[in-house]
């Protein structure tokens, strides 16, 4: 898709400039919602991510991240438990723990037929027969 | 009811449009629009910050407008379970967008789209770390974009919503959100920003007491590598100041609050297994009439277990009555204890009034269907299901009232 390509190439220099402390202020063009005339500009916000299509992480990889985040938080808080750094680190632990828990739930309910039949027990596919 | 000046003689079946922006070549516009002017005081509140809007705006055919529901709660407090119950009551299974980002936070069913407000993080994980702010902090969230997009969807126009990836902690490429019949915005801050709050047709806050939050997080995280009782406690405590400052105050705006507390049936119980759950329902909310027990407006204490119904230990106790909550008149229904047998649940359901079921036993049926969800045997599951039914009812009333409004729509 032409637009996607344009977005990628446009964005490349921006990322270099933007890495580092990211400002909470989102560029103006992005705040407006539907602006077809700014379509390319908006896409370029995400340009860097267009290159690598995200793939759902394996739950065990998330587990590593949780364990790592706990370690980081304990370290970050050893100096000053009231610092923003410490609080943000524990917040990351919460975020990752919640993500890991959701990933486990998702894994549990991957049998789509079973899920479907729960909602549509009368469907042909969901009939069970006894002799 | 928003009374509008509609410059057409008839709204239905097709809204005659006065102005139609020529955006349709991009496929954004799916519906026709009409111009209208607001003159009701409660639908338009200018912000003091100087955010200006024209005195008229463009809306879609009123009968197709999206109903917006807000659900607020902290992370790990049962929003996902509630969403699964809610979408189930509305009919059909809610699933992530097909063929989209596998880490998308959105759920879509025939009638409902649920979006996660984490998608409006303005700071990604690294950004928050550098600045030393939590996701609970408004500075980590883009309320301007949240408002613009929810408003745009409510007006019947699709938006390109960002995706916050909870695994990587980055903002992924956006996904297209088309206007559904019912839009649920769930997350940490659905009622934080006044502009977003004013877009909500109904709002719910899940208020989990500290004791129960701790118990739930132990259940969720103890098995996780790296976690210990200390780390779970430390995480809750570190986030608490921001939680108290930015999340908790939202409950005063909620039309319904589900409060989860430790039981009082077992003396000194701190296991957090048996729960006492309160459903606090605001009075005077349009299209929402609170559930009651036996006699509306009276104060009732009811132990259903006795001669007619035998319950397992520690039994079940209900209380109901009028109360005041942050200066609002409310009705409170409380359930302490848990259901251990099906007949207990049916017995209780048959004694509740105004639960907006379509047939006898619908609450029980919903609870049984999702008996594997957490809280299916206690007040959290019961009240979440009931709120689901109330929202379905609210939606149906809004739709019905719209089809009757053309005559009313006069200046």
How would you portray this structure in words?
The complex is a heterodimer of chains A (131) and B (411). Chain A folds into 2 domains: 2-51, no CATH class; 59-112. Chain A has helices at 2-18, 28-31, 39-45, 47-51, 59-79, 84-108, 112-119. Chain A contains 7 helices and no strands. Chain A is mainly alpha-helical. With 411 residues, chain B is α+β, with helices and mostly antiparallel strands. Chain B has 3 domains: 1-63, no CATH class; 65-203, Rossmann fold; 255-396, no CATH class. Chain B has 9 helices and 17 strands. Chain B has helices spanning 79-90, 125-131, 143-154, 194-197, 210-221, 229-247, 342-351, 362-369, 379-404, and strands spanning 4-6, 33-38, 56-60, 67-72, 107-108, 112-116, 159-164, 171-177, 182-187, 202-208, 256-262, 275-282, 292-293, 300-302, 316-325, 328-337, 352-353. In chain B, the strands form 4 sheets. A 10-stranded mixed β-sheet of chain B has the order 5-6-9-4-10-11-12-16-15-14. In chain B, strands 1-2-3 form a 3-stranded antiparallel β-sheet, with no helix packed on it. A two-stranded antiparallel ribbon of chain B has the order 7-8. The longest helix of chain B is centred in the C-terminal third of the chain and has 26 residues, at 379-404. Classes of the chains: A mainly alpha (131), B alpha+beta (411). Chain B: It comes from Morus notabilis. Chain B: Its EC number is 2.7.1.19. Chain B: This is Phosphoribulokinase. Chain B: Keywords: ATP-binding, Calvin cycle, Chloroplast, Disulfide bond, Kinase, Nucleotide-binding, Photosynthesis, Plastid, Transferase, Transit peptide.
Please give the structural blueprint.
The complex is a heterodimer of chains A (131) and B (411).
Chain A: H1 2-18, H2 28-31, H3 39-45, H4 47-51, H5 59-79, H6 84-108, H7 112-119
Helix pairs in contact in A: 1-3, 5-6
Chain B: E1 4-6, E2 33-38, E3 56-60, E4 67-72, H1 79-90, E5 107-108, E6 112-116, H2 125-131, H3 143-154, E7 159-164, E8 171-177, E9 182-187, H4 194-197, E10 202-208, H5 210-221, H6 229-247, E11 256-262, E12 275-282, E13 292-293, E14 300-302, E15 316-325, E16 328-337, H7 342-351, E17 352-353, H8 362-369, H9 379-404
Parallel strand pairs in B: 4-9, 4-10, 6-9, 10-11
Antiparallel strand pairs in B: 1-2, 2-3, 5-6, 7-8, 11-12, 12-16, 13-17, 14-15, 15-16
Helix pairs in contact in B: 1-9, 5-6
